[in-house]
Amino acid sequence: MNFDNILKELEHKGIRNDEAQSDKALKYLNITKDTGEFLRVLVLATRSSKILEIGTSNGYSTIWLASSIPPDGTVTTIESSERKAEEALSNFEKAGLANKIVLLQGEAQAVLKDLNDPYDLIFLDADRSKYMDMIKDISRLLKNGGLIICDNASSHESELAEFTAYLKSQQNFSTSLVPVGKGEFLAYKSSSKQA
Ligand SMILES: C[S@@+](CC[C@H](N)C(=O)[O-])C[C@H]1O[C@@H](n2cnc3c(N)ncnc32)[C@H](O)[C@@H]1O
């Protein structure tokens, strides 16, 4: 199955599942389709080829990211739920993108400590209450000239207030809130803040 077909299939499956499912742990909580399209434009425009994602679920957003990078690019994605990680791996195979994706199963706060390579783009879509615990590692892993994208910045604005305020206060980050999907908070890392 090509990735456009699997994206369509997962989009509908995610909506149906999450409407019917009352247990939050069993919801997919996928990004919206327009967020996927926005991620694709950002990946292409920034020429990102090494991407880190925190919060894989069943791999819907990962497939948007991995289908947007060049052939030698990689997406490293972190997921704490074993069940969702297994489902994501199967979806990566179906999409023909398994060779471009490295899935690390575990709690991101711990997994990040073992990563060292710089990333062009870091996409955050996991437990928002943990982002401040991860911010030092996220900043360390983002290259100068790299971009953080954080989902749910409008839908869960107050939960992200400390995190977004922190990035806005950093001299080397330029930030913007974009009203796409559930709200995408962008933070661009330069070596010094632009005037
Ligand atoms: C909103 S869903 C991700 C949706 C996915 N990005 C997509 O659009 O298809 C959040 C996922 O993050 C995972 N998660 C939450 N906290 C985590 C953590 N601390 N480390 C790793 N994964 C986490 C959850 O199990 C859940 O599958």
Give the strand line-up of the largest sheet: 3-2-1-4-5-7-6
CATH class designation: Alpha Beta
Q: Name the bound molecules.
A: S-adenosylmethionine
- Can you tell me the residue ranges where pLDDT is under 50 for at least 5 consecutive residues? none
Number of domain modules: 1
- Tell me the series of helices and strands, N- to C-terminal: HHEHEHEHEHEHEE
Structural category is alpha/beta
Structural key phrases:
195 residues, single chain, 7 helices, 7 strands, alpha/beta, 7-stranded mixed beta sheet
How would you characterize this protein structure?
The protein contains 7 helices and 7 strands, in the order H-H-E-H-E-H-E-H-E-H-E-H-E-E. It has a 7-stranded mixed sheet with strand order 3-2-1-4-5-7-6, sandwiched between helices. The mean pLDDT is 96. By secondary structure, it is an alpha/beta fold. The longest helix is centred in the N-terminal third of the chain and has 18 residues. It is globular. It has one domain: 3-Layer(aba) Sandwich (Rossmann fold), CATH 3.40.50.150. It binds S-adenosylmethionine. S-adenosylmethionine binds next to helix 3, strand 2 and helix 5.
